[in-house]
Write a structure and sequence with these properties.
Blueprint lengths: L1 H5 L9 E4 L1 H4 L53 H10 L4 E4 L2 H18 L1
Antiparallel strand pairs: 1-2
Length: about 120
């Protein structure tokens, strides 16, 4: 079993490909393009300046998740997400999950302890 898992290693650790439909939108939402609720005014009719994110993205009515987190567009993998959105197919990424690394490390240690 450990040999089989080790087939999925790379220079960082153990990983498998994951299809992420939630990035482009699925039955639960619109992914990065999901609207974020920001009220246009307060119940008393007073308008509000909600300010900006630290990187300068304006928080205002009508924004999407991506509008207030524009730094995602600077990620080297962002073109993959955009292409997937355009194609209507979920992007596939390789994730190195902490729990998977820990499980493999512990299993390897136990194997060495038990079988030398």
């Amino acid at each position: 079993l450990l040999d089989r898992i080790y087939m999925y290693n790379d220079s960082i650790g153990v990983a498998v490909n994951e299809s992420r439909a939630d990035y482009i939108g699925n039955e639960y939402g619109m992914g990065f393009w999901e609207p974020v609720y920001v009220p246009s005014d307060l119940p008393n009719g007073q308008t509000v300046d909600y300010g900006k994110y630290p990187d300068g993205d304006a928080i205002k009515p009508g924004v999407t998740f991506l509008d207030v987190r524009s730094w995602y567009k600077n990620d080297p993998s962002w073109p993959i997400v955009e292409a997937a959105k355009t194609a209507g197919t979920p992007p596939v990424f390789q994730y190195h999950r902490m729990w998977a690394q820990a499980e493999f490390g512990i299993a390897t240690a136990d194997y060495a302890r038990l079988f030398g």
